[in-house]
């Protein structure tokens, strides 16, 4: 059976976005209970949107910090980092401000990397076929 035939047989409901739960250890220690974030892969459209929004004003380069924060905002599904309740609690007005106030730079980068891996950027998503 060729690859086209295999893909035509694929049940579309099996094409779920990968996700995983991660413990935010520093927050867990501060609260005294496990703080678990559920993170999920991004769609190609969402990734493109984030990259466009992270471009500098001259459209010459990407602001890496902005790219990382926006990826975390979109990739962390629970708790929602867009929650008005959370933003009110921490006296911030935007999800980006919440991420910056709630998380350390290393935590942002780690979440960004996990979301990237789930989105297929781990180097193991595609493998060369050796004859």
| The CATH class | Alpha Beta
Give me the secondary-structure category: mainly alpha
In DSSP terms (H or I, runs of 4 or more residues), the helix count works out at 7
N/C terminus separation = 18 Å
Number of domains: 1
- List unreliable stretches of 5+ residues: none
Order of the strands making up the biggest sheet: 1-2-3
- What characteristic shape results from the CA principal axes? globular
> How large is the share of residues in beta strands?
5-15%
Number of strands: 3
Mean pLDDT comes to 91
Element-level helix/strand string: HEHEHHEHHH
Radius of gyration computed on alpha carbons:
18 Å
Task: From the 3D structure, determine the CATH topology.
Answer: rbstp2171
Q: How much helical structure, as a percent, in the residues?
A: 40-55%
The CATH architecture can be given as 2-Layer Sandwich
Largest sheet: 3 strands, antiparallel
Description:
The protein is mainly α and 131 residues long. It is built from 7 helices and 3 strands. The protein has a single domain (16-118), classed as rbstp2171 (2-Layer Sandwich), CATH 3.30.2220.30. The protein has helices at 3-9, 25-31, 44-53, 64-75, 84-89, 95-102, 105-118; strands at residues 19-23, 36-40, 76-78. α3 runs antiparallel to α4 (64-75) and α4 (64-75) crosses α6 (95-102). The chain is globular. The two termini are 18 Å apart. The mean pLDDT is 91.
